[in-house]
Specification:
Elements (H helix, E strand, L loop, with lengths): L24 E5 L2 E5 L5 H8 L6 E3 L5 H4 L5 H8 L3 E5 L1 H10 L1 H4 L12 E5 L4 E3 L2 E10 L2 E8 L2 E4 L7 H4 L7 E5 L12 H11 L3 E5 L7 H7 L4 E3 L11
Parallel strand pairs: 2-3, 3-4, 4-5, 9-10, 10-11, 11-12
Antiparallel strand pairs: 1-2, 6-7, 7-8, 8-9
Length: about 240
């Protein structure tokens, strides 16, 4: 937010928490930094939050708002001095290879360079820089995508259904970050009420809603949610013992 051409109370709000860029998170663990997705707004987000290194990327799926910032990984390549490993399911890795063919089949004239990435297809838990990463299959409409659990944290964006087997992977969470688009139903995203109901089933100590539309202000949504649930906002920092 704001949406181009929209003059609703959210898009014209002066509250900085109503300025919402595309959904994504950055996990800092010791000296390592891990991105979940490369949102279209990645460059602006990194500058706003002072992010200067990325050591890996976990992709949830290949929709444009979650991958189209991939070219901005070049800056992190320059700092890191090497390629960045990226992880996702087979469909996501295939789509990235197709959509960003120039990364894997470089043109003769490279000009400012291309992102250096190392694709890794995942189909189960794996270790990354000392962290145990658990992919959590969820449904985004008819599309099966991935959320991720790392220790007491789980991140599930663009979610419309959590299968029973995946819910079993979400026990004893300190923090659940869950996508919730708007006050009324959507075919591929939880509504606010649906997300709150799912949070009640999973029972994390705390939950944050993300991927929020322009149908409600941050304050109005916050006021309507249960005590342990709140809307997230750009630049928010949470400290956890992992």
């Amino acid at each position: 937010m704001p949406i181009i051409g929209c003059h609703c109370k959210v898009c014209t709000s002066d509250d900085h928490k109503d300025k919402r860029t595309r959904a994504g998170i950055y996990i800092q663990y010791g000296e390592k930094g891990i991105l979940v997705d490369t949102p279209t707004d990645l460059r602006a987000q990194a500058l706003a939050c002072g992010l200067e290194h990325a050591d890996a990327v976990l992709f949830t799926h290949s929709h444009a708002d979650h991958v189209h910032g991939i070219d901005d990984l070049r800056a992190f390549n320059f700092i890191k001095g090497s390629k960045i490993p990226v992880y996702g399911d087979a469909d996501t890795m295939r789509d990235i290879r197709t959509r960003f063919d120039y990364i894997f089949n470089p043109p003769l004239q490279q000009a400012g360079g291309i992102p250096g990435i190392e694709p890794n297809v995942i189909d189960g838990p794996f270790d990354l820089y000392g962290l145990h990463v658990v992919p959590v299959p969820i449904m985004h409409g008819r599309l099966r995508i991935l959320g991720y659990r790392i220790g007491p944290l789980a991140y599930l964006t663009d979610c419309s259904k959590i299968p029973d087997k995946s819910r079993e992977l979400l026990l004893d969470l300190d923090l659940l970050i869950l996508g919730a688009l708007r006050p009324f139903p959507h075919p591929t995203h939880f509504s606010f009420d649906e997300a709150v109901q799912e949070i009640g089933r999973i029972e994390p100590k705390r939950a944050l809603l993300t991927h929020i539309s322009h149908h409600v202000t941050h304050k109005d949504l916050d006021d309507s949610l249960p005590e342990n649930v709140s809307p997230s906002y750009d630049g928010q920092v949470i400290e956890l013992d992992i």
